[in-house]
Amino acid sequence: MLNILSPILPMIFLICLGRWFRQVEYFSKQTVAEIKKFLLNICTPITIINMTLLMKIDANTFLIITLSYIMLCLFLIGGKIANVIPFLHNKLNPYVSSGTAFMLVGMSLFTVIYGTEHLATFALIGIGHEFFIWTIYYPLFYLDTQGRKITLATFKNLLSSPFIIALILGIILNAVGAVQILESSSIGNSILELLTMISSVASPLLLIVLGYGLVFEVENFKLSLKLVLVRFSVVGLFGLLFKFLVIDFILKPNLIVDLSFYAYLALPLMFTLTLFVEGVVSDEEVEIINGAIGISTIVSIILLIILSVIIPPSIL
Q1: What CATH number should be reported for the domain holding residue 68?
Q2: Exposure string (b/e) for 292-307, b if CB count within 10 Å is 16 or more?
Q3: What is the DSSP secondary-structure string of 201-267?
Q4: How many domains does the structure of the chain reveal?
Q5: Domain range spanning residue 119?
Q6: pTM of the full predicted structure?
Q7: How far apart are CA 25 and CA 2, in angstroms?
Q8: Backbone angles phi, psi at 100, to 5 degrees
Q9: How far is Cα 41 from Cα 161, in angstroms, rounded to an integer?
Q10: How far apart are CA 173 and CA 128, in angstroms?
Q11: pLDDT given at position 261
């Protein structure tokens, strides 16, 4: 139990630190907005390059990435279906249901519980998630929240976005063996280390920003809880159906694959959603999203602990 909690405690501390910064007005709201811009425009693209650069590519790689991509599209559709129910209706339901805190929460917790030797399949699901976020989720989010229509300029802007460029660049560099080339020289190793350092900056800063935005008012808490209910209902229903009807039919029975998909379904909603909503929704809605992120993280930790009891590392 202590091994599972060890990566969680620093996260809790950083969130609390961000909350304290807000309480004592250590940062202004303008400063926090600038930090969010830095995270979104600098840290995130570099993290994507770093992740795709180091992944192992083979035939099974593309199959798992494709399956996770399709599954996330279903989650987004499920979020839209949830809006048919008046009590649950929220314009952000599709994005709360489909985006996942994979890199920030998923990778660290999965590694601590099950070790790096079983991380490959789980990481591939995460690559599918990144493709989904920057090709479907991100453009649709801004079309929905800003009332824009899809035009040729939309696709042009998408292809020129730093996130898509980072994905394509990372895959190309991976395919040509850039890591091996860089590792053969001291300058190359320094470049790889720089990518890792910048990527590592994102996690603590994002948690502090998340904590800064946490404001639990009774009414907002209820609305945050409702978003969390929609997320786990959609992910649970559509995710398990997709697992049993599609994944089990296409992939050979494999406990590691099963574990990776179940662990992915247990993850909280995407932390960077708090960056996306900044400036495109009201301050109250930003607080509701931050609250939903906090609640879903607690639920996720509980679910992952339960999963580690059902599928303990010792049987893998």
Answers
A1: 1.20.1530.20
A2: bbbbbbebbbebbbeb
A3: HHHHHHHHHHHHH----HHHHHHHHHHHHHHHHHHHHHHHHHIIIIIHHHSPP-HHHHHHHHHHHTP
A4: 1
A5: 2-315
A6: 0.77
A7: 34
A8: -135, 145
A9: 10
A10: 18
A11: 93
Amino acid at 117: E
* pLDDT in the model for residue 294: 83
What is the rounded CA–CA span in Å between residue 238 and residue 250?
A: 17
Q: Which of the residues in the chain have pLDDT under 50?
A: none
pLDDT at 235: 96
Residue type, 16: C
pLDDT single digits (tens) 85-133: 998 999 899 999 999 988 767 776 777 677 766 777 887 888 888 889 8
Cα-to-chain-centroid distance, residue 196 = 18
Residue 86 CB: number of other CB atoms within 10 A? 6
DSSP character for 277?
S
- Between CA 167 and CA 130 the distance in angstroms is 8
Q: Report the C-alpha gap between 206 and 187 in whole angstroms.
A: 29
Q: Which amino acid is at 167?
A: L
Contact present, 5 and 195 (Cβ < 8 Å): no
Per-residue pLDDT at 147: 65
Q: How many helices (H) and strands (E) does the chain have?
A: 18, 0
Query: Is 170 in contact with 131 (CB distance < 8 Å)?
Result: no
**Quick one: tokens of 235?**
């992910």
Residue type, 291: G
Judged by phi (left if over 0) then psi (alpha if -120 to 50, else beta), residue 257 lies in: alpha
